[in-house]
Specification:
Blueprint (H helix, E strand, L loop, with lengths): L5 E6 L6 H14 L5 E3 L2 E2 L9 H10 L5 H4 L2 E2 L6 H7 L6 H11 L4 E4 L14 H8 L3 E6 L4 H14 L4 E7 L9 H12 L3 E5 L5 H12 L11
Parallel strand pairs: 1-5, 1-6, 2-5, 3-4, 6-7, 7-8
Length: 230
Amino acid sequence: MPGSFQIFVTGTDTGVGKTQASCALLSLLVDAGLQPQGFKPYESGCKPLSAPADTLAMRAAAQSELPVNLLCPHRFRAPLAPGVAARRLGQEPDWDVTLAAWEKLRHGPVVVEGAGGLFVPLDSKRDIIDLISVLRLPVLLVARAGLGTLNHTALSLRALAERGIPVRAVLLSRSTPSRDPSERDNRLLLEERHGVQVLGPVSFHRDARRRHTAFREALRPLLPHRARGR
């Protein structure tokens, strides 16, 4: 498996399972004998700032020992979009700090995770989609499995296509235990209408280990064939 496996994990919304997908991918890469890194340059809702939960989860999944300041250079306590949280503090996140951190990570296998959806502001000028465009990475788009996902996913795919950003796959995830009758059709319709690989839906499990396993199995097809069985 090439050491250059790199992907940007974004979502159609917040709370759709981006971090769980990122951690599953990182653990699969570790199992394949690689030394991946998880990069989440912007994280909000950090209590305390020294322990950003999503970043730490990704670091653990990657079995990494790199410092948090490199893996997540911009952290905010308020559970808001990073750009909004920074604005409330009268701050402007330094874009050059983001790019400098990326420069140290971009030469190996890496999973980059965004914050919320594509148009979540990162600073006064840039959104998540701008970060994806600059990093020039293919995207894994995580979306809800149920009602509403056709519209949300289509809008996200259109925005990515307008920027010329390639999409590796869409991952559908169930975020609640209740079943949604639309799940029966959503995967096929998305594949037919948008010509994109659709994975899942990942079943809902209250147990964290079972949910992690479910994400791993759904995402295994993204790995090159010779690495999937490890």
